[in-house]
Amino acid sequence: MSDLRSIRASLPRLFWPAAAAGLLLVALLVSGFGCRSWPSVITSAATTSQQHSDSDSDFRQASDPCGTIATANGRATASYQGVSFIFERSLASNIKAETVTPIVLEREGDKPDSVTPKHIAFSLLGPYAEQHKSSFFQPQIHVYPIEEYKKVLAVSPEAVREFEDIVQRLATMLVEDGDAFGKEQWMPFLPYGIDATQQFHVHVKHLTFEQGKGIAFITQYNIEPTLINNNGLVYTFQGLTYDRRYYIVATFPVSAPFLANDASATFTRGYEIKWPKQPKDWDQFEKNYKEYVSKVAKRLELLSPAEFRRSSRFLRN
After folding, report:
1. DSSP secondary structure letters along 111-132
2. For residue 55, what are the contacts with CB-CB under 8 A and spacing of at least 6?
3. Which tens digit of pLDDT belongs to each residue from 67-94?
């Protein structure tokens, strides 16, 4: 990870709404970051039997415990393999830091939803994570090397093009007027190949950190039409370093008081999911569902940070 350590950073200036879910995303850290004692609140990488794009010996070296955590004034700074971030201890009692094993797309026609490059990831542990353990997305931060991501998709030129489109779309949005964000039909999102569809985006914010820019927004991904629900709702940050070498992703489950708890619900005030019995009824079903999603999105947009249940620190400016 020497290329990552070559990126220098000072204290970041980025607060995601509520210090971004209680987190301050730090830039990609300091050259010459050295190993110290490994505290119990951070754990190192797990391995997997999936195909590696690097040698086993290289992966083991990259996974050696080399992280620290320091606490002051209710906040902590977690550092691992040249990447750091500041978080509120009320949000996470533990942090799991790891170098994720690469999983390569083996055949062009395979589903890419599990494909990932070798990269650094942090998982938040503690009461907040436990509360949202059944959520579609877990509270995590990922630092993806863009070129490595393309390599693990290389067997499929189409997948590489689609991945590049996501990166370019985000880069383009970051130089446009912030007011244009809400007009986009879909927002850039990694990980690539997720087997679900983005339904809406609200509370869109244009954010900067020491070495890049990004956007934060609330959304839900559906595998099939379901009610917007608190297990699906997620606040995410999608960002790029200025040199376009790293794509930063953070996901934080959130909840709203008027939503169903999970996707098993089929009825809410004024709307019920009724699957069409005849093919001719499908267009009307889709129209009704889109209208329902639009109404929920507008209602979510109007919520103040304090109204997002137990999640106000994520959104408060």
Report:
1. --TT-B-SEEEEEEESHHHHHT
2. none
3. 556 666 667 888 898 888 888 777 888 8
